[in-house]
Amino acid sequence: MRIDFLGVEAFLSIADRGGFNGAATHLNLSQTPLSHRLCKFEAELGVKLFARTTRKAPLTPARTELLPRARAMLDELGAS
Question: Which GO terms describe its cellular component (predicted)?
Answer without folding.
Answer: cytosol
